[in-house]
Design goal:
Length: about 550
């Protein structure tokens, strides 16, 4: 603080406190929890008697919505009473929702403080009437913690969306709500229970709405993982709570929540994606072995290697039978080698998420260093094998956002066309300007440079910043033509029409034809060198 000149008032400081109140909440090393006084005020609120009292209570409860799982679903029955065309009738389902919000806030969890040095995980889901999401992280002890809950009811038009559009709507809602944490994050995982999302996002036939959403998703660097709804407890609870469905308001039933521990509930989210896709927390060997069971092609090969009989061999396709000697088993893994001299490599089944995890480790991870496709393929193919691996890696590297932003563009340059070699002095002259120099006594800040391409002799003339073609022609006649005659060609990288006017004014009196060559900066090297070194060197 002393080095940065930060001053504090010791009378206003609390040192070594276990937790401190900040903006209506309490912050400690364990995380962020709600203010007990505000929770007490909400829980002690009497049952509303009219819309005004209900609106006041909801306004107070909304302040702590991020501490409540499925808050929008809990208050949905009461929100329906705030509509203008609805008569006030406090029913049992409204009282149940009122009590459920109080109970949820009374047991509000301690939310984890976001740590930008650790990767984020987003869990999202959609039902027929609501969308929900949660932002999660691993803490220092490896536990899964919730950073924030978010959910809302669908608008009437959104309820008519197709299923995959509803899932994309939930994903879009999550990215908007957690934008400050996820935008700029190198790679984070988004979990969904809708398997067709992975193919719907790559479909060549997109609606205008989906095209807009995909354009929005392009701002983020995330990997989409599929997880069945039965394993994705958290987001399903946020979007599928029974009292959230307006079709069940008149037949509301309490469904007890046997698990009040939000941290344990969050643990279920990232224990594993499912048996067919990759999960960051599963051991890689186990993950690959489990994925074989979902790949019919490699599962048949493994069955033959375990029991090499005529029956198991007959179940293989003819090309597979011809190449069966290339396959072998290494414990629960399948290996592939072209011949006896080739090093066996682990076979990766047809699982996009599993392959994406491997390519991410070899390319995107800090140890990978974002190498090109050739080096990434060489490193990955030493240990693993799958068909068309090179094309897979090439597509991954081409779509890497960091490589596109940081690495120079790989475009083909036009071949250089050197100028003809000068054969005598002052037959070919390079011409250029340099501006931005200190003003001289007459206010001129530029220099006109003439360089003989044969002898490299340089002639300089001071010019104003707004020099005209006629003035340049006069300098050409005075410095070049008067001493050396009219050259055969002039090379310049400046505006061609400007120099054409200069040359027309210079040769009109002599009646000669003069060749003009627009060389560009890379071809007019001697004039550029004279512009950069000589005037600036003398100024220095």
């Amino acid at each position: 603080m002393r080095e940065n000149k930060l001053y504090v008032n010791l009378k206003k400081c609390v040192l070594s406190a276990p937790e401190i109140p900040v903006l209506g909440c309490y912050v400690s090393k364990s995380g962020v929890r709600a203010d007990p006084e505000k929770i007490s005020s909400i829980c002690s609120w009497p049952t509303p008697k009219n819309q005004t009292e209900l609106r006041q209570w909801l306004g107070l409860a909304n302040y702590l919505y991020k501490y409540t799982k499925d808050y929008a679903g809990l208050i949905q029955p009461m929100s329906s009473l705030l509509k203008k065309d609805v008569a006030w009738t406090w029913r049992p389902e409204h009282q149940d929702a009122f009590d459920a919000v109080k109970k949820s806030l009374a047991s509000a969890p301690v939310l984890m403080q976001p740590d930008t040095s650790r990767p984020f995980h987003v869990v999202c889901d959609a039902s027929d009437f609501a969308i929900g999401c949660a932002l999660m992280q691993f803490d220092a002890e490896g536990r899964k913690r919730v950073v924030s809950y978010q959910s809302r009811q669908m608008k009437p038009a959104e309820k008519n969306y197709p299923v995959h559009d509803k899932e994309l709507l939930a994903m879009r809602y999550a990215l908007i709500k957690f934008r400050v944490y996820l935008l700029g994050e190198q790679t984070f995982v988004v979990y969904t229970d809708h398997a067709s999302l992975r193919t719907a996002m790559k479909s060549p036939h997109l609606s205008q709405r989906m095209a807009r959403w995909l354009s929005f998703f392009a701002e983020y660097n995330f990997v989409l993982h599929y997880k069945p709804g039965k394993n994705k407890i958290l987001a399903d609870a946020l979007s599928r709570r029974p009292d959230y469905d307006p079709r069940r308001l008149t037949h509301h039933q309490d469904i007890p929540d046997d698990d009040d521990d939000d941290d344990d509930c969050a643990t279920c989210v990232t224990l594993g994606i499912n048996a067919t896709v990759s999960s960051p927390v599963l051991p890689l060997r186990q993950q690959i072995a489990d994925a074989y069971e979902e790949d019919a092609f490699y599962a048949a090969i493994i069955r033959y290697l375990r029991n090499p009989t005529a029956d198991t061999l007959a179940k293989l396709t003819r090309p597979t039978r011809d190449a069966i000697t290339r396959y072998d088993r290494d414990g629960d893994l399948l290996t592939y080698a072209i011949d006896t001299l080739d090093t066996p490599r682990v076979v990766i089944p047809a699982d996009d998420d599993l392959r994406a995890r491997l390519v991410h480790e070899y390319h995107d991870a800090p140890a990978g260093g974002h190498l090109g496709r050739e080096k990434t393929f060489a490193a990955l193919s030493r240990d693993f094998f799958w068909p068309r691996m090179y094309k897979w890696i090439r597509k991954w590297v081409r779509s890497c956002e960091i490589c596109q932003r940081v690495k120079p563009a790989e475009y083909k340059q036009a071949p250089l066309r050197p100028l003809p070699i000068a054969t005598s002095a002052w037959r070919s002259v390079s011409m250029d300007f340099i501006f931005g120099l200190p003003r001289d006594a007459e206010g001129r800040t530029g220099v006109l440079v003439f360089v003989d391409r044969f002898s490299k002799m340089v002639n300089l003339a001071p010019v104003a910043a707004d020099v005209t073609a006629d003035e340049s022609a006069e300098l050409f006649l005075d410095l070049v033509f008067r001493h050396h005659g009219l050259p055969e060609s002039i090379v310049s990288d400046r505006d061609p029409p400007f120099h054409i006017r200069v040359l027309d004014a210079a040769v009109c009196a002599a009646g000669h034809l003069l060749a003009y060559v627009h060389g560009g900066p890379s071809r007019d090297g001697w004039a550029n060198e004279a512009c950069e070194s000589r005037p600036r060197g003398r100024i220095a």
